[in-house]
Amino acid sequence: MLKKSLALMCTVLGLTGCAGVSPEVYRDQKPTLDLANYFNGPLTAWGYFADRSGEVKRRFTVKMTGEWKGNEGVLTENFVWSDGEKSQRVWRIKKLDAHRYTGRADDVQGEAMGTAYGNALQWKYTLLLPVDGKTYAVQFDDWMYQMDDKTMLNKSVMRKFGFKLGEIVISFRKGA
User: Fold this and answer.
1) Are 166 and 49 contacting, i.e. CB atoms less than 8 angstroms apart?
2) For residue 75, which of 24, 39, 123, 151 sits 20 to 30 Å off, Cα-Cα?
3) What is the pLDDT of residue 106?
4) Cα–Cα distance between 160 and 27 in angstroms, integer?
């Protein structure tokens, strides 16, 4: 009986340890993030991809334009990578209620699910990532934090089968 109780307790602790931070903990943080306001018009972002050891493998700049009509927005991202590669992603975002969003893009499998409270937004989605002629489905845990009216910071952790592959860090500047 003691072994079963101990095993159950370890299982519960192991599962809750993977839960992470809830976006609701940022409920009182300012400025309050409003995606339709922040991602409306031109933006510029700078970032990098680091592998699981922390080594920066690629850097990039993104010129973006957001357009919103009511609760639906289109965010067009044009990437220029440090190796000269160029790529584009077009997000179609829908605000469901005061705290929930969905998003779609051609290289996102299914829907991205977003939850926003205070100055923070957490996106969870599966990205179809091309690498050396193959495409891999990798899970993203993507956090955005609005710092002020013009600045947002973003940190994404990429995982495959639960193992961390790397992370992406981005700094956004509105109107740049």
Assistant:
1) yes
2) 24
3) 97
4) 30
CB contact at 8 A, 74 and 92? yes
C-alpha separations of 96 from 55, 102, 163 in Å? 38, 7, 31
Residue 107 confidence (pLDDT): 96
Q: In which residue are the tokens 């289109």 written?
A: 74
- pTM listed for this prediction: 0.86
Which regions of the chain are under pLDDT 70? 1-19, 176
Report the distance separating Cα 173 and Cα 176, nearest Å: 6
Instruction: Give the pairing of strands 108-117 and 41-51.
Output: unpaired
Q: What pLDDT score does 20 carry?
A: 85
Tokens, residue 23: 């976006």
Q: What is the 3-state secondary structure (H, E, C) of 108-143?
A: EEEEEEEEEECCEEEEEEEEEEEECCEEEEEEEEEE
Strand, helix or coil for residue 156: strand
The DSSP element (H or E) to which 71 belongs, if any, is: none
What pLDDT score does 2 carry?
46
Q: What distance in Å separates the CA atoms of residue 74 and residue 21, rounded to the nearest whole number?
A: 28
Amino acid at 170: I
